[in-house]
Amino acid sequence: MRRLFGSVRARATLAATAVVALTLVAAGAVVLLSLRSNLAGQADTAADGAARAVAAQIAQGVPYRELDLDEDHPVQVVDRDGRVLDASEDLESISGTGVQDVTPVPSPDAGQGEDSDGGDAPEADDIGEVTWHGQGRATVDGESVAYRLARVEVTDRSDETVLVYAGASLQAQQDAVHTAATVMLIGLPVLLGVVAWVTWTVTRRALRPVEAIRREMSAVTASEDLARRVPVPDTHDEVARLARTTNETLAALETSVERQRRFVADASHELRSPIASLRTQLEVAAAHPELLDLEGAVEDTVRLQRLAADLLLLARLDAGERAGDTRFDLASLVREQAADRPLVTVEAWDVQVAGSRGQLGRLLANLLDNAQRHARSEVSVAVRRDGDRAVVEVTDDGDGVPEGDRERIFERFVRLDEARARDDGGAGLGLAIARDVAVRHGGTLTVRGAPAGGALFELRLPGV
Prior knowledge:
Elements: H1 8-59, E1 75-79, E2 84-87, E3 91-94, E4 130-140, E5 143-155, E6 161-169, H2 171-223, H3 238-287, H4 294-318, E7 326-329, H5 330-338, E8 344-348, E9 352-355, H6 357-374, E10 379-386, E11 389-396, H7 418-423, H8 430-440, E12 444-449, E13 455-462
Parallel strand pairs: 8-10
Antiparallel strand pairs: 1-2, 1-6, 3-4, 4-5, 5-6, 7-9, 10-11, 11-13, 12-13
């Protein structure tokens, strides 16, 4: 049961059914109350008519014992003292009028009929307004029924005020309300069942793509195969967007994992050479101290130290290390990195940037190292402002970078000249680190051909 109601389908079905049930119950209650009110109003109108008709006869001077009482409406005529002057012939009992007696008292009908020739007889419409409405029960011919009662006050020809009570049966109202309530009670469960079934079916169809996505993601988790993709439904709704986003996430994960695998493999390969060389030299020195190549051991150690530092920096960048927001002069940093470097000339104007001074210093050092490694006779560095951007251009007069390789050189462990890179101690990480640092600082790093030949690396950073 807990598992069932833990599903979206079950909750959606339950919620829809509950909402429809509450709506139908509220609407049904309104309908029943409106029906009951309307029928009660009709009963009041009928009772008013019957009471006013009898009151008109009394006002005309018709003796009480000769009143024409409507057989369909029980009538009771009483005076101010509560004596019954007349009542319907079949009326056996009545409640709600305040006078339960239905047997007329002996009355000489004093004053009734004596002035019948004086003036025009009043019509029923000339009788006073109904002064009271109420509800009670009356027994007529042995059948007790609920009635709506109306009261009209009228003055007879003897100038006595009497009260005329007349009732209209509520049996039709009760039957109609009961019938409507029965229909609602029978139809409500059926309608709720239809709503629940439709909601369950529609929700199942709507969630079918989601279930397909879930199964595929479960298979990806079990197989660890990030090359798999979830099915994208042929729709333009949220589920289709979810599927496309999931596939984009899987593709990003696949790229990241593959990149990490290549990184680990390449790092292992790059670390193996200096470690093996250093171990060999140490083993030879242990056996033959006079053969120790101290200079080579130091070079291998330095190479290993640089490679380890590059790998640690890449790991920090991949982990999302923040660039910082320290403000400093980029031209000053360039001059600092170019100091004591042969062949390097600097032309710089003060430009303020924000970020990590250490990371940007490493970026510039890597660009200068790369330029010196490939330059024939000169490396030039220019620092300037271009709108809201700080621009650094590093140019060498070497062979340049082939156009087809201008993006590939920024990949990790990529070297266009394997033999020369290894001899010079390069592991193919410098330019990859430089671009990662530039991107972390909201900038770009690109390469193109220099006007006079060679390569021109352009760094653009947000200025402050």
